Amino acid sequence: MHELSIACEIFEQVKSTAETHRATEIKHVTLQMGRFSHTNPEQLSFCFKVLAEGSIAENAELIVEMIPLSIECECGYEGTVDEKQIQEDSGLQSELLAYMAAIFECPVCGKQAHITGGRELIIKSIEIETENEN
Ligand SMILES: [Zn+2]
Q1: Which of 42, 97, 108, 122 gives 20 to 30 Å between its CA and that of 67?
Q2: How many angstroms does the Cα of residue 34 sit away from the middle of ligand 1?
């Protein structure tokens, strides 16, 4: 499963960060996930919980912030794509839409626009508990 390997990576990163800061408990992990990162947030949270069992991240809450797809065109246009709207307009399935995201057209000039965001998966912040407040 795709989500399991991502959850593994996140877990390893979170754990090593927590160890560096001598954390006793990990409380929150905030992720930024692109709408087109092909990742299911529910499955990812589930995998993370399974991995974190028995570790200092056991009670950590995984918070996922979704990042919309953003595009940029050589005409100077920059914007985000509301894929929900497109989906409603065209009745496309999200998988197909994700594929089509590779060939998004600029709404201003109709040329092929570059995707500048929406595929990332980043650990934004980690909230930890440490033994000593100082
Ligand atoms: Zn354009």
Answers
A1: 108
A2: 22
